[in-house]
Design goal:
The complex is a heterodimer of chains A (115) and B (113). Chain A is mostly beta strands and 115 residues long. Chain A is built from no helices and 11 strands. In chain A, the strands form 2 sheets. In chain A, strands 2, 4, 5, 6, 9, 10 and 11 form a 7-stranded mixed sheet that branches. A 4-stranded antiparallel sheet of chain A has the order 1-3-8-7, with no helix packed on it. With 113 residues, chain B is mostly beta strands. Chain B has strands at 9-13, 18-23, 31-38, 45-50, 55-56, 61-64, 70-75, 84-92, 107-112. The N and C termini of chain B lie far apart (37 Å). Classes of the chains: A mainly beta (115), B mainly beta (113). Chain A binds chain B through residues 4, 31, 33, 35, 42-45, 48, 50-51, 55-56, 58, 89, 91, 93, 95, 97-98, 101-109, 111, and chain B through 34, 38, 41-46, 49, 87, 95-105.
């Protein structure tokens, strides 16, 4: 069964450093998402991406965040200058956009720890 | 999106049916009821969705009341692996480029041997 994959599974970084979280969405899916979950809190939407541009973003997704689909398979989330409060699980999701089960499928997440 | 209310936690005996309720009294006519679950520290997993008819798939059944103000997710024979947080989400179903999901607190289901 096709699945969303994410790397790394755990990333530790120093405050102020840049991090790039990587995702490989399900092949042939057209819509891509990033969510985050701070420990013990709700899953929060960050951004959605379609046709090589951001279609929706939350208040959390400020200028420190950016997303990119550098090639036909990867979808990345970059945090330019990490803060302690960026420590969280980051989940990537993708959606087909056509036919079948047109719902969001999530990856296993990347645990980001900012020291 | 309409607001949903779920009990914070429930227990269920292994092998028995788990019935998870959700209230969505402000649901509008074009909003669907979705259920996702999140097993500890994993990504949320889609379970099922419905508009007004009851739905069943290989994972669960969804029962929506006639007035659509509440629904119940049924796991017919709960196993220990069904221990998770279950989220009821109400939103319009369309193919817009956004389609973000808004997660609440969910119900923490504990399946016990």
């Amino acid at each position: 069964e096709p699945e969303v994959t994410q790397t790394p599974s755990h990333q530790v970084t120093q405050m102020g450093q840049e991090v790039i979280l990587r995702c490989v969405p399900i092949s042939n899916h057209l819509y891509f998402y990033w969510y985050r979950q701070i420990l013990g809190q709700k899953v929060e939407f960050l951004v959605s991406f379609y046709n090589n541009e951001i279609s929706e973003k939350s208040e959390i997704f400020d200028d420190q965040f950016s997303v990119e689909r550098p090639d036909g398979s990867n979808f990345t989330l970059k945090i330019r200058s990490t803060k302690l409060e960026d420590s969280a699980m980051y989940f990537c999701a993708s959606r087909a956009g056509t036919g079948g089960i047109n719902e969001q499928f999530f990856g296993p997440g990347t645990r980001l720890t900012v020291l | 999106d309409a607001k949903t209310t779920q009990p914070p936690s429930m227990d269920c005996a292994e092998g028995r049916a788990a019935n998870l309720p959700c209230n969505h009294s402000t649901i509008s006519g074009n909003e669907y009821v979705y259920w996702y679950r999140q097993i500890h520290s994993q990504g949320p997993q889609y379970i099922i969705h419905g508009l007004k008819n009851n739905e069943t798939n290989e994972m669960a059944s969804l029962i929506i009341t006639e007035d659509r103000k509440s629904s119940t997710l049924i796991l017919p024979h709960a196993t220990l692996r069904d221990t998770a947080v279950y989220y009821c989400i109400v939103r319009v179903r369309n193919n817009n480029a956004g389609n973000m999901l808004t997660f609440g607190g969910g119900t923490r289901l504990m399946v016990k041997p």
